[in-house]
Structure formats: C-alpha cells, structure tokens
C-alpha cells in the first residue's frame, strides 16, 4: 500500500498564481506513515515579496499588442495587421531566419529610438521657439506639462534600456533570486532536517518495536523450551515412576512366584510325604501281603506236610493193611479175589473221593487267595494308576502353571520392553522435535539476520545512491552551468557583434564586454560560494 497526498508547490516564476497550500501532507507507505508540513503562507508571502514584479519591456510603437489583463478569458477581434503579426510569430523559423529577424527587430528598435530622439529634439526645439515667442495659455501649459511628463517617462524607459541599468536590475533581480534561493535552501534544509529527525524517530520506534518483538519472541521461545523441558522432565519422571512401579510389580510378582513355588514345593513335599506314606503303607501292605502269603504258604506247606503225613499214614496204614491182608488173605487169594477186587475198587474210589475233596479244598483256598490277590492287585493297580494319574495331572497342572507364569512373565517383560522402547521413541521424538524447533528457530534467526542485513545493506545502498545522485546532481548542475555560461557567452558575443555590426562605438562595446565579464565573474563567485554553503 502506497498512498501519497499530492504536494503543493510554489512557483517562483508565477507567484501570483500559487494554489492554496494545505496545512499538512500525509505520506502512507508500506513501512510507516509520515506527516510533512508544507511552506506556510508567511514564507510564501515572503518569497512573493522577494520576487520582483515583471518589468514591461518597451516595444516599438508599431509592434505593441493589446494585453488582456483580466483573469477571465474574453474574446478578442484582431485586425489584419495583428492577425498577420500573430501568424508571422507562430511561423517556424530557422536559425538564420531567426537571426535575420532579430537583426531587423533590433534595427527597427534602433531606428525607432533614433526617430523618437529626433522627434523629441524637434519638439523641444519647436516648444522652445514657441515658448520663447509667445506666452502659453492653460491648455498649452497642461499639454506642455503632459509632454514633459511623457518625456521624463520616455527618458526613464530609455535609461532602463541602458546596459548599466539592465545590469543593475539584473544584479538586483539576482540578489532577490539568491535571497529566495537562500530561503528555499533553508526551508529545504529544515524539511530535510525534519525528515531526517522523523526518519530517525520512526527508525528508533521501529527498532524499539523490533527489539520488543524480538524480546517477546525470545521470552515466548524460552517459555516454550521451558515447557518442553518440564514436559520432558515430567515424562522422565513418569518413566522413572513406571519403571519403579514395574520393578515393584516385578518384585511383587517375584514374591508371588516365590510364594507359589514355595507352595508348590510344600505341595511337592507334602506329596512326597504322602507318597512316602503311601509307599510305607504299600510296603506295610506288601509286608502284610508277603506275611499273609508267607503264612498262607506256610499254612499250605503245613497242610501239605499234614496231608503228606496223612497220606503217608494212610499209605502206611493201607500198605500195612494190605500187607496184613496180603499176608492174611494170601492164602485166601482166590476166594477173596473178588472181595479184594471190590475192596480195592472201593478203596480206590475212597482214595479218589478223598483226593478230590482235598483238591477242592485246595482249589477253593487257592481261588480265594487268588481272588484276594487279584482284588489287592486291582486295588493296588487302581491306587498306582490313580497316583500316576494324579501325578500326571499335577505335573500337567504344574506345567500349565509354569507355562502360564512364563507366558505372563514373558508378556509382562515384552510389555515393559515395548513401553521402554515406546518411551525411548517418545523421548527421541521429543528431542528430535526440540532439535527441529531449534533448527527452525536458527534458520528463522538466520533468515531474519539476512533480512536485517539486507535492509541495512539496502539502506546503505540507498544512502550511497543518494550521495552519488547528490554528487552527480552537482556535477550535472556544474555541467549545465558551464553550458549555460558558454551559451550566455556566445549570446553576449553575438549581441556584441550585432552591436558592432550596427555601428556601436568600440569603447562602449569594450565597456559592455568588460561589465559582462565582471558580471560573469561575480556570478561565478557567488555561485561558488552558494555551492560551498550547500555542500557544507
């Protein structure tokens, strides 16, 4: 955004046509707002007073044109001569034609002056003769006074046309112009000083704002870094607390594991004791069974011994009886053969029945013992199978508990490991974020420093450019002044040559040339003094 209120300038060449001056001039740019005070009315009036009034240049009688002095434009009817004059003036002329025309005009002016002088002399001579011969009446006296007034006025105008008077007027005009220039230079210096003070004030204000903003940014950055540090400290505290809680939880779980292991050990010890008791009981039972078996075997042996003894006794009895019978009935063998056969048969049958009963008793005892043994073995087998099954189930349950504990410990360790790595990743991210923010801040500071340096360099370049422009302006003005002096010198030489060509005496030409050179030296001296003052 760049808005500027149009400035009002006061023209030295046209002071009476100056536009109304505003009280203030506001310049709004992208960086700041400036308010400048233009020239006051008093300074304008002072400049107007210093500017000389425009001096009318006497023209030949036949070349004077009516001048419209009113401010408003009015229609004008020109006659043929005026129209031809305006048309001839507006016609483009070459350099030779222009010089020829100027020569003709100068000749015409010189001739007109000469004619006026001759006419004046004739009129004075005539008036002198008339005044000498006759007394003038009131009308003639009034006409004479009017003629004298006109004559004095013409003399004054002719004096104004003299080179010395012109030079004096030019010196006076130059002095007034120099005074106006001094006033303008002073006002320009004052404006430049006010502008510099305003720029210094605005620069100081902008620098103060920049320093305040930098301080705010630094305070904000410090607060943010402090918050980040507090957050990081809090995160580390939480990590430590979680680590301590995890250690406490691990300790508690270790205690529970130890307690469970102790319980399992106690259970195992109790199982061992129960198993030992069962083994002892089994041993006692086996001993009892062995004792019972031994007793049964002993009883069987005794029964067998008894049966053998009975059998031996029976056999001995039978043998004795047979021997007796043989001996008794040996003689009666034939008669008693059938009876003996019958008796043998009956004895055989009786022996058979006795053996069968004994075998049945033995078989029943054997079957009872085998049934008892089978029942005991079955119970023992069932007890052993039950113990094996319980031991297997207990072992499986222990394995399950162990696997569960191992899985729980592994899961907890994995969880703690994940939490630990997550905390490490979070800490790394926080540190990376802090580093990234510090890097961004450093880059911003570098960019800002570069911008500030660029602004400083731009200001320095602008100042150097202004100084160079100022020096170049001085050089240009000096060059223009030299060119102007050269043109003035050429014009003076041309006019002197014109005067010489018109027949002006050499001494006047030399005097005019001398005065022109004196004027030139004076002008150069005053200009150099002003340039030195402006340079200072």
From TrEMBL:
List UniProt keywords, sorted A-Z: Cell projection, Cilium, Coiled coil, Flagellum
State if Coiled coil is listed as a keyword: yes
What do the Gene Ontology cellular component annotations say? Answer: motile cilium
Principal subcellular localization:
other
Subcellular location(s): the record lists:
Cell projection, Cilium, Flagellum
The record, for InterPro entries, names: CFAP45, TPH_dom
Q: Does the keyword Electron transport apply?
A: no
- Kindly list any coiled-coil regions of this protein: 95-171, 332-397, 426-469
- Pfam families named in the record: TPH
Q: Where is the Trichohyalin-plectin-homology domain?
A: 158-505
Q: What family does the Swiss-Prot or TrEMBL record give for this protein?
A: Belongs to the CFAP45 family.
What is this protein's record name? Answer: Cilia- and flagella-associated protein 45
Q: Give the organism, scientific name.
A: Clydaea vesicula
UniProt lineage: Eukaryota, Fungi, Fungi incertae sedis, Chytridiomycota, Chytridiomycota incertae sedis
């Amino acid at each position: 955004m760049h808005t500027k209120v149009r400035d009002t300038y006061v023209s030295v060449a046209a002071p009476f046509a100056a536009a109304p001056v505003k009280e203030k001039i506001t310049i709004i740019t992208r960086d700041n707002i400036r308010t400048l005070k233009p020239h006051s009315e008093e300074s304008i009036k002072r400049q107007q007073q210093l500017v000389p009034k425009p001096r009318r240049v006497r023209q030949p009688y036949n070349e004077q044109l009516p001048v419209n002095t009113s401010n408003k434009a009015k229609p004008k009817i020109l006659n043929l001569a005026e129209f031809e004059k305006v048309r001839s003036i507006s016609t483009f002329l070459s350099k030779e034609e222009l010089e020829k025309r100027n020569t003709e005009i100068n000749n015409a002016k010189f001739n007109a002056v000469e004619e006026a002088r001759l006419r004046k002399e004739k009129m004075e001579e005539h008036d002198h003769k008339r005044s000498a011969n006759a007394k003038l009446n009131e009308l003639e006296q009034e006409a004479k006074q009017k003629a004298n007034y006109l004559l004095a006025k013409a003399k004054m105008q002719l004096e104004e046309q003299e080179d010395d008077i012109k030079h004096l007027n030019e010196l006076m005009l130059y002095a007034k112009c120099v005074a106006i220039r001094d006033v303008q230079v002073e006002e320009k210096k004052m404006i430049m000083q006010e502008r510099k003070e305003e720029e210094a004030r605005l620069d100081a204000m902008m620098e103060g704002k920049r320093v305040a903003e930098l301080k705010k940014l630094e305070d904000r950055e410090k607060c943010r870094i402090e918050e980040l540090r507090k957050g990081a400290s809090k995160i580390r505290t939480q990590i430590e607390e979680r680590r301590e809680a995890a250690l406490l939880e691990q300790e508690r779980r270790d205690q529970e594991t130890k307690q469970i292991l102790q319980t399992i050990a106690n259970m195992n010890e109790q199982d061992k004791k129960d198993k030992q008791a069962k083994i002892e009981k089994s041993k006692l039972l086996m001993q009892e069974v062995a004792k019972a078996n031994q007793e049964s075997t002993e009883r069987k042996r005794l029964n067998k011994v008894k049966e053998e003894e009975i059998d031996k006794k029976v056999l001995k009895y039978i043998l004795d009886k047979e021997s007796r019978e043989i001996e008794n009935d040996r003689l009666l063998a034939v008669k008693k053969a059938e009876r003996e056969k019958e008796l043998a048969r009956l004895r055989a049958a009786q022996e058979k029945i006795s053996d069968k009963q004994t075998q049945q008793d033995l078989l029943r005892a054997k079957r009872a013992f085998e049934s008892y043994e089978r029942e005991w073995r079955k119970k023992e087998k069932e007890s052993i199978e039950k113990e094996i099954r319980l031991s297997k189930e207990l072992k499986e349950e222990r394995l399950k508990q162990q696997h569960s504990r191992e899985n729980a410990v592994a899961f907890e360790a994995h969880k703690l490991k994940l939490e630990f790595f997550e905390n490490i990743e979070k800490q790394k991210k926080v540190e990376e974020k802090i580093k990234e923010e510090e890097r961004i801040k450093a880059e911003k500071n570098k960019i800002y420093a570069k911008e500030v340096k660029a602004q400083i360099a731009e200001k320095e370049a602008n100042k150097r450019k202004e100084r160079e422009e100022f020096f170049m302006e001085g050089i240009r003005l000096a060059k223009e002044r030299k060119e102007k002096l050269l043109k003035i010198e050429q014009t003076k030489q041309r006019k002197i040559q014109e005067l010489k060509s018109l027949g002006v005496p050499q001494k006047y030409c030399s005097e005019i040339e001398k005065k022109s050179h004196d004027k030139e030296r004076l002008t150069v001296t005053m200009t150099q003094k002003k340039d030195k003052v402006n340079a200072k």
